[in-house]
Design a protein that fits this description.
The chain is mainly alpha-helical. Helix content is 81%, strand content 9%. The chain has a domain of 68 residues.
């Protein structure tokens, strides 16, 4: 907090504010200029009237500047839109992170499934090989059976 004694229209006022001392002095100088303008232009303005009239002039300047700066409504609209877009961006980033997490999970699941598929294909090849071996054994046994059957029939005929 800054404490400063200022003089406006020959009266001393104590101002306590967070603003910088130099800034407060510039405000005081500005008010004094406005009071001097009122005193120069007015006929026999005395007492507090110059200060009140200066305050009215300052308010007039302020309101005219505010009406010129009507785009400040546009600024607040833009700030609101910016906030909304920022919130949407935040939600999209969260969604993107969730999607990336799900994609990583699915990639891991795909990898596991691919490994299981490879193992299963190897087992199928092994079992196909076993089937081929068994089919060959069956062919050989049929052939052997046919030979024995023929030998038996030949023995039975010869008797």
């Amino acid at each position: 907090m800054n404490r400063l004694n200022i003089r406006i229209n020959s009266r001393v006022y104590t101002v306590v504010a967070d603003e910088d001392v130099e800034y407060l002095k510039s405000l005081c100088d500005y008010v004094n200029e406005k009071v001097e303008t009122v005193l120069r232009e007015g006929n026999h303005v005395m007492g507090e009237k110059p200060v009140v009239l200066a305050a009215l002039n300052i308010c007039d300047e302020y309101f005219k500047l505010m009406s010129q700066n009507a785009p400040s409504e546009k600024l607040s609209e833009l700030l609101a839109k910016n906030k909304k877009l920022s919130d949407e961006l935040h939600e999209l980033k969260k969604s993107e992170a969730a999607s990336a997490e799900k994609a990583a999970s699915l990639a891991e699941e795909l990898d596991i499934t691919s490994n299981v598929l490879s193992e299963t294909e190897e087992k199928v090849k092994f079992l196909e090989g076993q089937i081929t071996i068994k089919e060959n054994q069956i062919k050989k046994q049929r052939s052997d059976f046919a030979l024995r059957e023929k030998e038996l029939l030949d023995m039975l005929e010869s008797k």
